[in-house]
Amino acid sequence: MSTITYYLDMQRPEQIIGKPLPADLSVVECQHKQYQLNRFLYQLVGEPWQWTDKLSWSDAQWRALIEQPGHRTWVAYYQGAVAGYYELLRDAEGVVEILYFGLAEAFFGQGFGGPLLTQALQSAWAWPGTTRVWVHTCSLDHPSALANYQARGLRIYREEVEAEAP
Prior knowledge:
Pfam families: Acetyltransf_1 (PF00583). By secondary structure, the chain is an alpha+beta fold. It is built from 4 helices and 7 strands; from the N terminus they run ββααβββαβαβ. Helices cover 25% and strands 33% of the residues.
């Protein structure tokens, strides 16, 4: 079975098709950068989807990613528990990648994905100087991931198919 990676983007903030944040879900930016928190969030959210590429990273590698000026993190909380998170990474040209986005497994199916993605897109566009927002997902991600990205106004601009090794 092959894996399909989808690259989606948005050229203007007016393209956001928003979904309101439920009153009991709060989203807070981590203004004090803590690479250990990002490592925890990566594991918490990524575990069901085998996010493994950074599991072997050293503290120095995590610190280098998280502490760079163009990196920002937000955490979603529901009744005091971490419900999900997203990370944004902006380059020198103002292009913002939604580097990581997702919900903790305990919160699947509760309708939080659309509102949290709306927040991620609004955060990206509220960052002064943003020129474009993009994200990638793949066929190994949550079955609703691609549909959520498209429902919020992101459009596929590239697909890559990687055949599974025999």
